[in-house]
């Protein structure tokens, strides 16, 4: 069913067959009851890759080689056969939520984080930063901004 | 299957092109079909140098001119490099690997994973033994940190073992390799790492 070549040890997985969270839920769930599903945990940072060497939770080594147009999402099924499904689990990853107190500060904050090349998501009234390294390094960069902008870190959100 | 795309970044003059010149014969020996994209500021200097070297057919070496800060075309907007890689892949379907050399930059330069599958950052002993301790994003985030020019460490007052230890300290479990392109030492180790982590051929 899937374009995977199976050698003695390492499995090469070259396509995304569907999603455990959507179209393939029932099929994969049925295999799960028989203990025939293996999960690969992928960090948020690694989810941007198209090629990845990884290990399933059952210790099977896999080489993931996806088409350039594909993208790794939580629940992606990268192998599906009669007796085995391999599913990618993307860890949500650490984030830090910044809340500006006024428009001026919001602009400063956005400009600042942009200059630092941080990956951010905009939400209503706040900005969520993806932490690709230790949180302390991100906090240190924000210290210099404190005198220029009014904002706080939403400690309950991270 | 697509060709693996591997980035090579690092400061000006650290030996990125020299490393490619050492990697190419080793890759060829293993039958790994390779092409190269070089990035320079406003010239095709590195591409011309590799073409003259004759280790690859000239049309397997493409040049991209960044025009401005080199990191802009490997991170902020890598479309030029992506288009060059797509072109190589279309023209040479047999490719296993495309090496992408960034223009010489600073310690903050990193590759977008939209462009490459895996990337190494090259620094050299002549830049100073304290470079790893400065926690540059390039040094911290790359998949492999290469410390080049190990041959001249004593001449630039660098304690190489200490430099490697400092690099390992800031990088945690991620690999660090000290090499010398001049003496061709440890080049095969880089190729092994590449094959294991990303080429899969
Ligand atoms: N001693 C010594 N010199 C080296 C080594 N590797 C490179 N060099 C020298 O370092 C200089 C710069 O090497 P390049 O390969 O051009 O460096 P680069 O990083 O490609 O430079 P840019 O692309 O301009 O940023 C050259 O003069 C090389 O001969 C090495 O291992 N040992
Ligand atoms: Mg160069």
UniProtKB/TrEMBL annotation, chain B:
Cellular component, GO, one term: cytoplasm
Pfam families attached to this UniProt entry: cobW (PF02492)
Domain CobW/HypB/UreG nucleotide-binding: 6-177
Subcellular location: Cytoplasm
Keyword field contains Acetylation: no
Highest rank taxon of the organism: Bacteria
Record keywords: Chaperone, Cytoplasm, GTP-binding, Nickel insertion, Nucleotide-binding
GO biological process, one term: urea catabolic process
InterPro entries noted in UniProt: CobW/HypB/UreG_nucleotide-bd, P-loop_NTPase, UreG
GO molecular function per UniProt: GTP binding; GTPase activity; nickel cation binding
Family named by the database record: Belongs to the SIMIBI class G3E GTPase family. UreG subfamily.
Subunit structure: Homodimer. UreD, UreF and UreG form a complex that acts as a GTP-hydrolysis-dependent molecular chaperone, activating the urease apoprotein by helping to assemble the nickel containing metallocenter of UreC. The UreE protein probably delivers the nickel.
Function: Facilitates the functional incorporation of the urease nickel metallocenter. This process requires GTP hydrolysis, probably effectuated by UreG.
Protein name per its UniProtKB record: Urease accessory protein UreG
């Amino acid at each position: 069913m899937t374009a995977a070549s199976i050698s003695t040890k390492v499995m090469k997985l070259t396509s995304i067959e569907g999603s455990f969270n959507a179209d393939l839920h029932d099929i994969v769930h049925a295999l799960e009851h028989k203990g025939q599903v293996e999960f690969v945990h992928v960090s948020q940072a690694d989810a941007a890759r198209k090629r990845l060497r990884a290990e399933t939770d059952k210790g099977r080594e896999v080489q993931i080689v996806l088409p350039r147009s594909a993208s790794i999402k939580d629940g992606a099924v990268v192998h599906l056969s009669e007796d085995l499904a391999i599913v990618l689990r993307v860890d949500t990853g650490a984030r830090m939520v910044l809340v500006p107190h006024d428009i001026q500060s919001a602009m400063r904050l956005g400009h600042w984080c942009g200059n630092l090349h941080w990956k951010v998501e905009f939400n209503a009234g706040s900005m969520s930063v993806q932490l690709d390294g230790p949180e302390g390094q991100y906090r240190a960069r924000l210290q210099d901004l404190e005198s220029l902008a009014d904002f706080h870190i939403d400690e309950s959100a991270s | 299957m697509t060709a693996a795309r591997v980035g090579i970044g690092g400061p000006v003059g650290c030996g990125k092109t020299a490393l490619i010149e050492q990697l190419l014969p080793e890759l060829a020996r293993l039958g790994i079909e390779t092409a190269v994209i070089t990035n320079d500021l406003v010239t095709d200097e590195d591409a011309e140098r590799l073409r003259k070297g004759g280790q690859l057919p000239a049309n397997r070496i493409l040049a991209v001119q960044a025009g401005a800060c080199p990191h802009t075309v490997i991170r902020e907007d890598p479309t030029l490099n992506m288009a060059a890689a797509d072109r190589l892949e279309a023209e040479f379907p047999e490719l296993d690997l495309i090496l992408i050399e960034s223009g010489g930059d600073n310690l903050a330069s990193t590759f977008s994973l939209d462009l490459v599958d895996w990337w190494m950052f090259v620094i050299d002993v002549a830049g100073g033994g304290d470079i790893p301790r400065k926690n540059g994003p390039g040094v911290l985030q790359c998949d492999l940190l290469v410390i080049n020019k190990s041959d001249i460490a004593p001449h630039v007052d660098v304690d190489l073992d200490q430099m490697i230890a400092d690099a390992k300290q800031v990088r945690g479990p991620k690999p660090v390799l000290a090499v010398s392109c001049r003496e061709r030492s440890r080049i095969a180790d880089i190729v092994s790492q590449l094959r294991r982590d990303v080429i899969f051929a």
